[in-house]
Amino acid sequence: MAEKNNLAVAETDERVLVIERIFDAPRELVFACWIEPQRIAQWMGPKGFATRSLAYDPRPGGSYRVHMVGPDGDEHWLQGVFREITPPERLVRTFCWADASGNPTPPETLLTVTFADLNGKTRLTLHQAVFESAAARDQHQGGWTSTLDRLVDYLATL
Fold first, then answer.
1. What whole-number distance in Å separates Cα of residue 93 and Cα of residue 49?
2. C-alpha gyration radius of the chain
3. If you average pLDDT over every residue of the chain, what do you get?
4. Which domains does the chain have, with CATH numbers?
């Protein structure tokens, strides 16, 4: 379990998103939830979204592709490439929306997630940049906030 409050950290660039969250779960488990496909499928996406398919090759240079369906039936595809994986401390990957055929819809951003051990709890810091606008950043903040709420709910079942 974790608190369902995000702390958005101020950045000098309005096109950068930083969210910090404390999870009441060990760092190794929270990290595994970001790396293991069977776990990711349980919580990835905002509330009301369902993961329909997932291709996930978590290694530097490996790619991922996620197909989610929203509560309105709209389909959403995201994909990218893993740049760095340092268990259980750090995950870096590109992030890009795409169409059903895998054609990316720019811009591509870089997503860095760090996991700090807090004596059995985990401080997760999500950093995503660079967005095309502050409005795009704000949309992603809403999406990530809801997605991290789903991770809280998933961790509570373990």
1. 22
2. 15
3. 93
4. 7-156 (3.30.530.20)
